[in-house]
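Work package 3, deliverable 3.1, input record:
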Amino acid sequence: MSTATWLDIGWVDHIPVRGSRTVQVEGGDDIAVFRTAEGKVFALLDRCPHKHGRLSQGIVHGGAVACPLHNWRISLSTGEALGEDKGCTPTVPVKIDGGRVLICRAGTLKAAG
Amino acid sequence: MEHRHLKPDADTREHLVVIGNGMAGCRAVEELLARDPSRYRVTIFGAEPRVNYNRIMLSPVLAGEKCFDDIVINDAAWYTDNGIALVAGDPVAAIDRAAKTVTTRSGLAESYDRLLIATGSDPFIIPVPGKDLPGVIAFRDMDDVDTMLAAADAGGDAVVIGGGLLGLEAAHGLSLRGMKVTVIHLMPTLMERQLDEAAGWLLKNALEARGQTILTGADTAEIVGTGKVEGVRLKDGTLIPASLVVMAVGIRPSTQLARDAGLAVGRGIQVDDHMVTSDPAVLAVGECVEHDGQVYGLVAPLWDMCRSLADGLVEQHSGYRGSVTSTKLKVSGIDVFSAGDFSGGDGCEDIVLRDASRGVYKRVIVKDDRIVGAVLYGDTADGGWYFDLLKRQEDVSDLRDLLIFGQAFAAGGGAADPKAAVAALSDDAEICGCNGVTKGQVVSCIAKGAHSLDAVRGTCKASASCGSCTGLVENLLALTLGDDVQSGPKTMCKCTSFGHDDVRREIVAQAMRSIPEVMQKLHWTTPDGCSSCRPALNYYLLCALPGDYIDDQQSRFVNERLHANIQKDGTYSVVPRMWGGLTNPRELRAIADVVEKYNAPMVKVTGGQRLDIFGIKKEDLPAVWADLGAAGMVSGHAYGKALRTVKTCVGSEWCRFGTQDSTGLGVKLERMSWGSWMPHKFKIAVSGCPRNCAEATIKDFGVVCVDSGYELHVGGNGGIHVRATDLLCKVATEQEAMDYCAAFIQLYREEARYLERTAPWIERVGLAHIVARIVDDEPGREALRARFLFSQSFSQDDPWAQRAEGAEAEHHAPMARFIPQGEYA
Ligand code: SRM
Ligand SMILES: Cc1cc2nc3c(=O)[nH]c(=O)nc-3n(C[C@H](O)[C@H](O)[C@H](O)COP(=O)(O)OP(=O)(O)OC[C@H]3O[C@@H](n4cnc5c(N)ncnc54)[C@H](O)[C@@H]3O)c2cc1C
Ligand code: SF4
Ligand code: FES
């Protein structure tokens, strides 16, 4: 049983800039891990608040991602839908250590539920 | 130059021993002396065989702007005058905390009452084969500079690995010293930790203009050479010759000594607010420490740390609270400034100013009325001012509109109301610098009926080139017309004041080559665009630069990035090409096998005469494509703004009414046009007679065969607004039908706006225009056809085959798997 509070999911460099990768969580939804043009990394549940589109597949611009299904814009840092749309996707705390990406274990479990 | 220092019997003061004769170690001693010059007896150990110097000035030394003597901070006299013993050139090898002694490599031991560790950082050397060859160095101390100068004297090629601050300063110096320099940078843009994409692009251009070769997105595989370095090989196979390789990929806090001594070490030596480590007798300062989870790689934080440290040593605790940093690149003639957090995000507002003619880009990031970050390129005069506002957390709401113009302007130089400012301009004040148009000319052009921005651009040309005066022209329109201003044709999106046609025209006219370049030259108001403009720009560049432009995958909608259609449950559908609607047992078998092997829940005959396999997982796509590819099938582009299907009917070969080989022509047309990227999807059909079983008259390009030849139809659409085609013309031969089709597609590719299908495009420009270009103008048609075929020579690589072979695997595989009850892999 792993008791680590942070999960090491891999190198930052393995996430495309302005792109994302996913972390599969057994028995739950995927976590989408994004990297912005500015090099910041964010993790969110890979599920749009609208109709559950895979946010990891959207276009990343600025600090937001456009959902691939109906183009809602979701803030990467808060998970809130931006503009006129209303809704929120759970976020997972992230930290970078020595080029590795770590996501919060508890946050992952809670989000992927 | 090692001196042994024996403790004078008379000196009963506490002994402070410093490990590291660098910037932080000596500064700490200076701060201490300033507070209480007689409190401690001081001994400094330094690994480098020289006195304390200003490390950041190694760059100007390399560039030939300074010599070593100019950069010395404390000369030998300083040590003597202050009674400091310096042991230089003999690094400390061990700390014994129980005995309170340090021992050097040569065996000299010294006891301490207080120990200060200031060992700085070690350059990070990427673990590639050949990293230990002579001629491979880092850029950290004066010895490295000496090695570089010797290499430069011998001339030849240098490779600098790393396009951050350090690497670019090394490259600049070596290039000034006459070496041919190539910079290899892993990331897509230079200095990505300090600069955003727009500024990084400007910087790359400026360095290239100075003769350096800059390779971004380039990954080093190995350093080659026998006995000494001879070159660097990249992962893509490219070999770059080099007699000198400088690795400037990053630094790691130098913590080995502390770790061996059992001190608490994370990323750096962990210290509290007074720079005290886990052992109260041991302090640490500089780049080797970790304070509050942060490590630093710049000098400004060291000064703050040294102050708190010295306060602590003389018992006037002040406490270090972390630092906000700003950076500048020390390359003469290139002004770059960056401070704070420029990653944007929630509640953050970007204020962007781009002045293409002066090569200026400024971006200030504001959150809750406070500046949180700034990136400046080309004009950094206001860097200090923004940094000051940032550090002081000043409320800038009153300055908001003028902030980006700088301190002079915001402090009252400019009138606060932009409209009033424009009204105050004289008639011969120049509004549009690119086209030399004065205010008087713009006003008179508005008076003569140009009531929209677009009309002004079309008549007197103001704001028609770089667009930086758009705001001024809009204010003039508002001043002259009040409420009668007509809004022009829609702009591409909120990021720009230009419409699609303007952007396309300027991409070609100014020979632009990348998305950041377009955004800079056309004054985008956002740093990296949005999901509307990025795919459009990517297409326009692709169309303008066949074979040359590097497609930006992250600017494509998911379907085009994954070469499959996303479904509402996040799975994908896969549609292989069936040329002209024809198939055979081998293909059908392969499809059947895939459906079974990957548990596809559904397979369906599409309205486009082929089969669609539904419910494939993203991870399985490459394997599915490999299986289909083995049976000879390629991508059907059912997901793309591209050629979709070519529907055919059975035609003269079987049908009792068929007049020509409609199936054969359909296959030929599909073979000619598959793989081409277009403004929107494009469908073709060929019917063997006017009964039109292939529904050719609702296709983008439709052929209806007749006894005497081929009727060519264009602009049909069966979608939301059904539109029957217009008859373009009739031709006699199959070859002509193919040639006209190629020319028509290319005209559409070059002139239609992104996401405009042929039907609305033709309604907008008129059929007469198409006839004039395709039917009446034979050389023009030939040229269009030739351009289409040229661009096709680059686009008919099956994207599925590339992915099946492992290209861009990151798009398909998850990064990690996590099993909550156990370990994760
Ligand atoms: C699979 C298919 C339906 C079927 O089961 O037969 C289909 C499926 C979709 N069509 Fe279609 N269209 C299909 C033939 C058609 C046809 C018939 C034809 O091509 O002869 C039309 C009308 C002809 C035309 O395009 O003018 C058609 C007109 C549309 C439209 C409306 C286009 C328009 O200009 O108004 C859309 C929406 C769009 O593209 O924005 C659309 C969009 C879509 C999308 C891509 C919706 C979407 O954006 O996700 C559907 C994707 C399903 C999937 O995931 O695979 N589909 N769609 C057909 C695939 C053909 C193929 O082999 O590639
Ligand atoms: C070329 C270059 C340009 C730079 N430009 C800038 C700039 O423009 N702006 C900016 O803010 N920063 C710049 N920096 C970074 C800046 O120089 C550092 O932040 C600063 O020098 C750190 O100070 P320090 O005392 O922690 O480490 P250092 O200055 O590296 O001092 C550490 C010293 O400890 C010695 N040492 C290590 N281990 C031992 C041991 N076991 N025994 C004895 N001695 C030991 C080392 O030899 C070294 O002399 C630049 C750095 C370089 C290399
Ligand atoms: S008609 Fe509508 S529902 Fe059916 S495939 Fe086309 S887009 Fe989807
Ligand atoms: S599911 Fe994301 S926008 Fe509809």
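Chain A has a mean pLDDT of 89.
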